[in-house]
Amino acid sequence: MATRILGISAYYHDSAACLVEDGRIVAAAQEERFTRKKHDAGFPSRAVEYCLREAGIGVDQLDLVGFYEKPIVKFSRLIETYIACAPRGLKSYLTALPLWLSEKLWMSDDIRTHLEDAATGVAYTGEILFGEHHESHAASAFYPSPFEQAAIVTMDGVGEWATSSIGAGRGNDIELLRELRFPHSLGLLYSAFTYFTGFRVNSGEYKVMGLAPYGEPKYVKLIKDHLIEIRDDGSLWMNMEYFTYPSGLTMTGGALERLMGGPARQPESKLTQREMDLARSIQDITEEVMLKMTAFAHRETGLRDLCLAGGVALNCVGNGRILRDGPFDQIWIQPAAGDAGGSLGVAMALWHRHLEKPRISPESAGTWERPVKNDPPYTVRKYADGMSGSYLGPSFSETEVGEFLADNNYKARHVSRPVLAEEVAGFIAAEKVVGLFLGRMEFGPRALGGRSIVGDARSPKMQSVMNLKIKFRESFRPFAPAVLRERVHEWFELDGDSPYMLLVADVQPRHRLPKPAGGVVDGLWGIEQLNVPRSDVPAITHVDYSARIQTVRRETNPDYYDIINAFYRKTGCPVIVNTSFNVRGEPIVCTPEDAYRCFMRTNMDVLVLENFILEKAEQAPIAENQAWREEFVLD
After folding, report:
1. Residue 135 falls within a domain, yes or no?
2. Mean of the per-residue pLDDT values of the chain
3. Rounded distance, CA 408 to CA 400, Å?
4. By residue range, what is the domain housing residue 87?
5. In 302-443, which residue ranges form alpha helices assigned H by DSSP?
6. What is the pTM for the complete model shown?
């Protein structure tokens, strides 16, 4: 009889659900994909419904349900913080308290209520168990990884009390050895500067990372002199005179504005050189902390490989530094590294730690002798993990897609998969922008070929076209390359796997174009520099020659691989642009209807829905588009 465990994360941001059956991840998805509310924090009812449907079971067939953190411990931290800050923080206290008293403190009852099937009256009657926040992150990092043993580092804003942790995973056991505690937090430090530079906390941090290469680290000394102390083990002490998040509804206030010589940038106002320099400064500091913390984990554990999770682990520039400059042979990063991944982590922790079940090797895993940077070579698994490429969300059959198209009278051509790859490669080579809706939806914030928008990385105009006419987002934002795994070393300074787009590396020198004298083009400054081609693949090359890489193996996603390989055969370039299938302010598309709507509201040229190809020129206009464009609010 199979053992089925449901993991849940909810009520802060990026709520999600995950279903594990006998140690295998069957399904996982964020609630936002179903409700269409970006970063939806509500109870993940629709994500739970999907997971149960994918497993073919009802709630009464679940053996355990796990929640990713301990609400009572978190509430005690909030109360202690409010008392310590009193009388400051009253408004924040009065805002938070009603929700805690009405829902969060009664989480077991709340979960049971949501898991009851209203139509049939069938309810879940089993145990509901609670993990610790950083234990859930650690479990999500280690258990699906390809490593038999590894150091574990988790870094985020805050869980109950912990803001970072260091531990070790061996077999089916995890031991957390050290932790950094609130209010001192690398994640909250980065979020404070996200807020100060005018972006939204918990969603705009990657914009700060993308803005950093345009600036200079002019504020590093000021930050270190007044705001923080970085210790040799990577732990932080933060001067709370400059931060308001423990007691207020904002991250920073007047003290930081006075120190920085001016007010925080207003959202959507024009970016200035100050924001670029602030972004570069906080990015440099973050990388320093990440390197020191992971080096300390190496010293403490003596292990050769590293697993990462927590929101800070989405900082792919820092991850690239750890791989390149750190002491570990290999690193593996949970693709849903933020709170959504906590649902997966708690489910895996219940299977391995609570039920004491052994780990199982992924079906495609084997062993090999691999030379690594720290001699001697040693036997490791082939690069196969337990995440199934992170393709853990819903899929739609060819029949379902065909019925959707027929019911709405949308014009489409049906082709075989080999023909599909060749045709899509041809569209990309002709500088068309293509929306891909293939197979299962990805779990986590990155589109990896299942719900992606793709284009020609060789095109000098592709970056601006996709930013301004497809994604409706800031022009400074770079795009990521998807590259055939066996060709990655030929184009980038990386000779390894980066399946989840969580590592940054530089374009190989032979593919770069020379920098202008002094590194600056006359008359251009800051983000205008992005319009100057930097390499043979300018659409994915940032101003510092870096790129956020996704390596693609045929074993993991044959359809996506075949498209890129067909493009390589046509052009000699194994690299395409890959960005998520959504517009700014909306979640990644989930259903064929979501995909068609996004396709018609943007300047995409072609839409692929499984084996069906739709060309924009052949579609009837949608009447709602003009009203939607007028009402569209940028996040």
Report:
1. no
2. 91
3. 13
4. 1-68+70-130+339-355
5. 316-325, 340-349, 398-408, 417-429
6. 0.93
